[in-house]
Design brief:
The protein is built from seven helices and two strands; from the N terminus they run H-H-H-E-E-H-H-H-H. It is an all-alpha fold and 203 residues long. The chain has a two-stranded antiparallel sheet. Helix 3 packs across helix 7.
Amino acid sequence: MKIAVLFALAGSAAAFAPGASQKASTALNAITDMPGATMPFKGFDPLGLATLGSDSTLAWFRAAELKHARVAMLATTGYLVQAAGWHFPGMLSSGVSFESLSTMKPFDAWASVPDGGQQQIIGTIFLAEIITEAKGVHYTKGGDLPTIVFPPIEFSSDDPAMLKVQQSRELNNGRLAMIAIMSFAAAANIPGSVPALVGNPMF
């Protein structure tokens, strides 16, 4: 009971704290002006994550979203390509062919990759992360958001308005890809968990 009272008092104090509503309003304005704030969910932030911490925290959230979006787009594309029966020719290792991997569920395919291969993949990801985090002025201090490392692709426009459009497209496609790959993984490992994919031979 005492704990409940303390939480209630803390909540009341926070509600009337100076600058609390101003901070939330500033954060809402910030996310509605950022790339990716497009219809139909312009400024969508039901958990109020934009109000946590400082501008540096918000930049960290955006960089994390961008990285996850890019990984999800690669993962979704890879899943669909393999599910369609397309794969690299030859052998991944002495006892594992690319063809056999393409017929497995994601977690089973990962488990079939030899330890050395798994270590190379994890090492490459780690290296890419180090390069993006150590490149120039950090994004939490006003620097540019992480760029693609392998390969160093740059399609952005010099026109600020067009650049924002391109960034919004990348984020929105990435958000859809995050939902897609989570749905694919769930459908492949938990039968019936994604009704729209039930009976699909790819899963």
